[in-house]
Amino acid sequence: MTHQEDLTAYIAAFVAELSKTGVKDVVISPGSRSTPMAMVMSEHPDLRIHVQVDERSASFFALGIAKATSKPVALLCTSGTAAANYYPAVIEASISRVPLIVLTADRPHELRDVGAPQAIDQIHLYGKNVKWFVEMAPPEKTEDMIRYARTVCARATATASSYPAGPVHLNFPFREPLIPIMGEGMFELVDRAGGYVDIQTGHLSLSDETFERIGQELISYRKGIIVCGQIDSSEFADEVIALADKLKFPIIADPLSQLRSGAHDGHYIIDAYDAFLRNEDAKESLKPEVIIRFGAMPVSKALTIFIKENRNARQFIVDSGAGWREPSMSASDMLYCDEAFFCKQVKSSVEPKNDSAYFDKWFAVNNLAKDQLSAVSIVEELSEGKLFHQLAEMLPEGATLFVGNSMPIRDLDSFFLFNNKKIKVMANRGANGIDGVVSTALGVASVSQPCYLVLGDLTFYHDLNGLLAAKLYNLDINILLINNNGGGIFSFLPQANEPKHFEKLFGTPLDLDFRHVVEMYKGKYDLIKDWSHFSTVFAENQIVEGLKVMEIQTIRDRNLTEHRDLWKSVSREITTKLKGDIQ
Amino acid sequence: MTHQEDLTAYIAAFVAELSKTGVKDVVISPGSRSTPMAMVMSEHPDLRIHVQVDERSASFFALGIAKATSKPVALLCTSGTAAANYYPAVIEASISRVPLIVLTADRPHELRDVGAPQAIDQIHLYGKNVKWFVEMAPPEKTEDMIRYARTVCARATATASSYPAGPVHLNFPFREPLIPIMGEGMFELVDRAGGYVDIQTGHLSLSDETFERIGQELISYRKGIIVCGQIDSSEFADEVIALADKLKFPIIADPLSQLRSGAHDGHYIIDAYDAFLRNEDAKESLKPEVIIRFGAMPVSKALTIFIKENRNARQFIVDSGAGWREPSMSASDMLYCDEAFFCKQVKSSVEPKNDSAYFDKWFAVNNLAKDQLSAVSIVEELSEGKLFHQLAEMLPEGATLFVGNSMPIRDLDSFFLFNNKKIKVMANRGANGIDGVVSTALGVASVSQPCYLVLGDLTFYHDLNGLLAAKLYNLDINILLINNNGGGIFSFLPQANEPKHFEKLFGTPLDLDFRHVVEMYKGKYDLIKDWSHFSTVFAENQIVEGLKVMEIQTIRDRNLTEHRDLWKSVSREITTKLKGDIQ
Questions:
Q1: How deeply is B582 buried, as exposed, middle or buried, from its count of CB atoms within 10 A (0-12, 13-18, 19+)?
Q2: Which ranges in chain B are annotated with CATH 3.40.50.1220?
Q3: DSSP annotation string for A399-461
Q4: Of all helices (H) and strands (E), which one includes residue B425?
């Protein structure tokens, strides 16, 4: 038995099993040590291989595919700092519960910690940020070690996918020569051709008695709200709406809850709370007795404050991933249970309410706020608010809208209101980084079309390297680049009152003409002149293939003023209305 | 005492002490959580603040300054994946022994692991890759906590700087409001104005008896060689040459040993070994009885194999950092001692040898190889070999030459031969990554002029973001971009014989016209047409300020052939000569 036969058989068994467990996509960064795994993967007929030179972009690209498909995606890189470049995406995957299978090639044991080239300590490289780490056994072709390779692979996929989903890391020591022996039938599995071990991972559920008790408790409250943060379950939307209908509770729907768009009934959806929960009269008048929370913490700071101010309310948090997504320190009941299943079971345990004056108040205030917000649509200058306000109308049916962190996600929250289209809204809201957003969106675009990305200039700059994927793989993506020449969010924070170091430390204007880089990546670039030009280009780009960047230049200070004016006008109207109601 | 007073006093004490310990440069990436530290640092009169948006580039930029100055540089970023982007540079700093002080802002304890925005687990974020990790106490203005902040700061600088130098990580929990109260005299230290605690870290030394014994042993060998890998000690060069002169041992000088350039005597310097140690006759004829190694393992694979093939030789390894930089598994004596001091002490314990036939043979073979290698200078096509061969002549006195990994460092090794100029040669040879090279070189350029960077297209692409620093801070740098449209090194490896997946997985042609991106960063770009054009542009750029990129397009296959032909001709001549000697 030669070393190369051992190497080939062991890796081929692993790769065959990887495909059997349902993994379709592999993102590979070029390198020497990873050669045997890269070559064997490329030989497999059912794996889709994406090659990316920058491992940071590669890992976010993989994250994007995994987010869009809810299936684990494999990553492969060589030894050394290549693997360390995955760290930000691994952490994002961990917190946002996205399944990734990180495969790193390593020097064999005798070349570790001895100053050998391109050798770093890869054992537990990502610390507690992966659900599982395995230092793989050196390749061998014995029956036991083939079973081992297949079993570890099956466990890796299952662990990455089970609730809460997340990244796993397998580290492979490979000795030279690194060239596998390719051949017909190398992926044929001698026994258990359908996969070595079928792993069913289950979801969390509570007892019927508990559902019954919670149902009775919930129905006993007159003033209840449901808060939905980011959640990606496909059945959840219908179930939570059915529950809301039974309880007559409004649903405070975060833009990432997937509840602001869809064929479902929008009646219960509260979408303008980020504007009106800044008003004291509204907050006073809408105080809840009970809150049910699903998904991650919502984006809106106004909502977070509202929740904190209502700590006397009973607060149920339902989490299929058994985590603790509760920075407000106000939870009274933590329920570890699949969210859609929870809604279904509780719903069937209660009698429907007929109506609710409390819900009507939310409904009225929300409509009032929406009316005020629609004032942005008459703004003549290019502005963030208007852009997000009209996106719901402009986006084609079935589109995916990926949104950058910092200001875009907040503007989305404020201005992207309920619509009956099928639009999936995504963002990297695990750690809220400005890193890797371009690549994540391109990963999404590689499996989900049409795809739109809205992001700011600092976020765009941070992952310019990600654009290479669009060029190499002819990916279609529409990028709306909001360029306010720096960090717009800081204008909203207290440091804006400290002019001395502001521009240097926070404003950080880049003064970059992004046309150059878009052209380098063979994209179509348009500098948007005005709203009518925007409409034209937006429509035109729907039939243009490839990378398209529409740059919308805005002014940080004006954006700040526009937002503050709008919130003031919302607030004024609400106060007038609520005082009027009382009189 | 308000929170902001606590915050300000604690941070100001830390920052004042940081400056007292000798830290000059701080590289800051914009963020919200890090606001108090960033603002206080900017207020300090003696700190040089560099702002970089992409934390990966920021950390390599800091690495470059620290490498060039041999002084610790501080890094500051906000909470979340921002800090994870430092990981590759932190690992590189750890392995290549460069002092970095990584400061990360974090959420306070009550906002950790509860799904708060931009919060990740930052405790021991870099694992064992930092020499010291401290979870800082929350800011307080008590006398004890001010002493604490100052002491930890002094220890951080001392730990980062002491042998072996490396990165340390301090994690600061900051609560809102994050705005410090700036004021006159905020950095005035109430007591011990010159610094809180003076830390002297010492260097390793052996006993006089040990030096004496080793000296006697060394002098007893007829056939000895000194091998110098990467080493940055400023006194080392003179001391090792004096030792070689006494022992009559040749010095096999890696390009990063700082021995291939300099005012010192080149008589003992062997610089063409990478070419002639591929020849069996040379290797047979030059077998050593004793090897003394200093610094990291050399770049040359031929040399590594030669060392491995001579495991019967006594092998002394001298390491001031008490590490184990010895992948050849052939060391017989590991000596933990300052390298320059070792040379000095051993030298003074031995009587000088008069001559050595063994040394003469190394000298003759080296000269023969150099003659053959000089054939590259008549090549008409643009080629890597000729480029590095003529660089020694073209570079201005006092220049720093930073070289990318993969092929450039190997070509440098083969073709950049001894010269009497003052040229400092640098590379990221800790983990040999292709990441962060542009930024590291720009960090070097910010403190050391004139600065030249030679790198390949994949390495250039990997850190294009780094170029922003050149634009924002008007840094002068001359970049020689060797564009062979992909991963040239793989053509030299066995996978080149596997055409099926080669271009996709290893060749990875990017087909990028880099002119665009250089123009975006306001640099001067020249596509080099031929050697005469190269000379003209090279000379012209010496008086042009800012970012200058000279792109030299080469062909991967031709480069491979050229190298192989040269090595063959070296080998042929050596065999003829050595056989002639024997007859």
A1: exposed
A2: 208-370
A3: -EEEE-TTHHHHHHHHH---BSS--EEE---SS--SSSHHHHHHHHHTTSSSEEEEEEHHHHH
A4: strand B424-426
Residue of B nearest to A78 (CA): B433
Eight-class DSSP state of B419:
B
Residue A562 near residue A387 (C-beta atoms within 8 A): no
How is A326-390 classified by DSSP, letter by letter? -TTS--SEEE-S-HHHHHHHHHTTSPPP---HHHHHHHHHHHHHHHHHGGGGG--S--HHHHHHH
Within 8 A of A34 by CB-CB distance, chain B residues are: none
Q: What are the pLDDT digits (tens) for B529-583?
A: 999 999 999 999 999 999 999 999 999 888 889 889 999 999 999 999 888 765 4
| C-beta atoms of A30 and B505 within 8 A | yes
All CATH 3.40.50.970 domain ranges of chain B, comma separated, are 3-173, 382-553
**For residue A422, with 0-12 CB atoms within 10 Å meaning exposed, 13-18 middle and 19 or more buried, which class applies?**
middle
Pick the CATH number of A3-173 from 3.40.50.970, 3.40.50.300, 3.40.50.720, 3.20.20.10: 3.40.50.970
Residues 98-137 of B with CB under 8 A from A: 110-111, 113-121, 124-125, 127-129
Mean pLDDT of all residues in chain B? 95
Tell me the pairing of strands A73-77 and A100-106.
parallel
Question: Using the beta-carbon criterion (under 8 Å), do A327 and B505 form an inter-chain contact?
Answer: no
Please check whether residue B164 touches A, CB under 8 A: no
CA torsion, points B343, B348, B352, B353, in degrees to nearest 10? -50
CA dihedral A502, A434, B470, A548 (to 10 degrees): -120
By the CB < 8 Å criterion, does B500 face chain A? yes
Judged against a pLDDT cut of 90, whether residue B434 lies above it is answered with yes
CATH number for B382-553: choose from 3.40.630.30, 3.40.50.970, 3.30.465.10, 3.90.600.10. 3.40.50.970
Closest residue on chain B to A300 (Cα): B117
Q: Scanning every residue of chain A, which has its alpha carbon at the shortest distance from the alpha carbon of B300? A: A117
Decide if A43 and B114 are in contact by the 8 Å CB cutoff: no
In chain B, what residues touch A508 (CB-CB under 8 Å)?
30, 51, 53
Beta carbons of A92 and B81 less than 8 Å apart: yes
pLDDT for the residue B499: 87
Determine the average pLDDT of the residues in B404-418.
Answer: 95
Would you state the pLDDT for residue B117?
A: 92
Residues 6+ apart with CB under 8 A from B460: B404, B437, B438, B479, B481, B483, B514
* pLDDT at residue number B583: 46
Instruction: Note the ipTM here.
Output: 0.97
Contacts A498 to B, Cβ<8 Å: 39, 179, 182
In chain A, residues 516-535 whose CB comes closer than 8 Å to chain B? 516-517, 519-521
Residue B102 and residue B90: Cα distance in Å, rounded? 8
Which CATH number is correct for A208-370, 3.40.50.1220, 2.60.120.260, 3.40.50.2000, 3.40.50.300? 3.40.50.1220
Torsion of CA A253, A257, A263, A269, to 10 degrees: -10
Name the residue among B113, B468, B487 with its Cβ closest to that of A324.
B113
Q: A458 near B53, Cβ under 8 Å?
A: yes
Give B-chain residues touching A55 at CB under 8 angstroms: 435
Q: What are the start-end ranges of the H helices in B248-398?
A: 273-276, 280-285, 301-309, 339-348, 357-373, 384-394
CB-based contact A516:B519 (threshold 8 Å): yes
Q: What are the chain A neighbours of B327 within 8 Å (beta carbons)?
A: 111, 114-116, 119
- pLDDT for A583 equals 46
